[in-house]
Specification:
Length: 150
């Protein structure tokens, strides 16, 4: 189950390969959220097809919107952990983009460890809220092309 995955356990053996780390740390959170969303889908044989419809850019935009909404609504304590997950997604997506397209950026062991810590914290926050309505609504937003009006 994705909620039991600990990024440091998987990534620990890859510390010598920053190229691998820059991809894995982002994808770990990306796939956690996708696995959680498609796990709610009622037809198991369709889940892998559904999982391929998720888009990094759209997920980043939804996450940015959630962060903005969190701050504009007065930073309610009930939304802090989801804001942290969304913020980690945005940060890791940005680092993945830097890693893939900015050849001048020098990756260090400290950069890799900080990214692993970011993923680990996001997984812990997600585990705490994954069954709450706010988290399930976030997953739905990541999936739907556009949220219907309430």
């Amino acid at each position: 189950m994705p909620g039991n995955f600990v990024p440091g356990e998987v990534l620990g053996g890859l510390c010598g390969s920053f190229a691998s780390l820059r991809e894995i740390r982002h994808y770990a959170l990306f796939h956690l959220l996708i696995d959680e969303a498609v796990g709610n889908w009622g037809v198991p044989r369709q889940r892998s097809i559904l999982a391929r419809t998720f888009d990094h850019g759209k997920m980043k935009g939804i996450s940015e919107d959630h962060i903005t909404s969190f701050y504009s609504s007065g930073q309610p304590p009930s939304g802090a952990q989801l804001k942290n997950v969304a913020q980690a997604f945005v940060q890791l997506q940005g680092k993945r983009h830097t890693a893939n397209y900015d050849n001048a950026f020098v990756w260090s062991k400290d950069n890799a460890i900080a990214a692993i810590d970011t993923v680990r914290a996001a997984f812990i926050d997600w585990q705490a809220i994954r069954n709450q309505d706010i988290a399930q609504d976030y997953l739905l937003q990541l999936f739907l092309p556009k949220m219907p009006r309430a």
